[in-house]
Amino acid sequence: MVNLTRRAFGIGAASVALGALSARMAAAQDVTIVVNGSGGSLAEVLKKLFEDPFTEQTGIKVRATAPVSLPKLKAMVESGNVEWDLTELNGDDVVLATKEGWLEEIDYSIVDPENELPEMAKLPTAMVRASYSTVLGFRTDRFPEDKQPKTWADFWDVENFPGPRSLENSPKCNLEFALLADGVPLDELYPLDVDRAFAKLDEIKDHIPVWWDNGAQHVQLLVDGEVNMTSCWNGRITPLKSEGRPVEISWAGGALLLSYLGIPKGAKHPTEAMQFMKFRMDPVASAEFVKVMPYPGFVPGMMELLEPEFVATLPTAAENAEQQFAFNSSWWAENLEEVQNRWNEWLLI
């Protein structure tokens, strides 16, 4: 009869566990998940704070790709040649992709096993990654301190707030801004009065020398002084202010939007993708992320790690959020094609 001591049994059990862990790590080293995102400086921050540590902990490698593209997601899923395991999505993309069956169901027992995320952050096919705002940004050196633009009505007021300005080359948010400039209350924007919005856009069109296409462009327009004011993403202006640039934003009438993570239907590594989604919920790393890129999500415990003064600068801070409208992704998903076609034609007139 073999007599196993408790110590020997403990050593044996530890060896088995270590062996199993090593086997899992070895298997994981053969897996690379492809994560589709926005690219640029955001990709560098994600790699440092999430992707490299995830690989170090699990052995699962992460390869980032860019840019985000709903047409490419559609083409991959419908052809059965799915390259991505995880992709960023905006709100109306989630609505459309879910309706068309281009996204996998998310198993929240993997992503959020402690059930800590608020329910509004957990859609069946997508998880909220971040929140951000499109707001009015302006150069403080182009306007007297007591007469700086604060509202979209000011943006449209070329007599009292002169000079070139810029807007995104997209109907999304611009129709809302036009309606706000025309006096529509925040809580009465939707459903959008498209005809009224385009009529108001007619008034400002000749004062827009450049319709920006990406976040880097609108920042450059402001920094170079090519425009006095522009619609902009809140996170692009914060670093400029830290550098001492003469720029500021107004939260009044801003569009508060959500960004999501979803798994394409037919992804090669959906389980590993969900493990990475769970890893993205680390509160310490998430707090460090928000310090660099002020686009907060709903990671439990994250806000408590940030200074109150900094939290007050984020789009979800109560004082800022109450001045904004919640972008209606469902309305845009239903109406985007028609409105986009009209926008494209309008720009050519």
UniProtKB/TrEMBL annotation:
Recorded coiled-coil stretches: none
Pfam family name, one: SBP_bac_8
Domain of life of the organism encoding this protein: Bacteria
Keywords: Periplasm, Signal
PANTHER family: ABC TRANSPORTER SUBSTRATE-BINDING PROTEIN, SPERMIDINE/PUTRESCINE-BINDING PERIPLASMIC PROTEIN
Record's signal peptide: 1-28
Transmembrane segments: none
The UniProt record lists the keyword Metal-binding: no
Stored SUPFAM superfamilies: Periplasmic binding protein-like II
UniProt-recorded name of the protein: ABC transporter substrate-binding protein
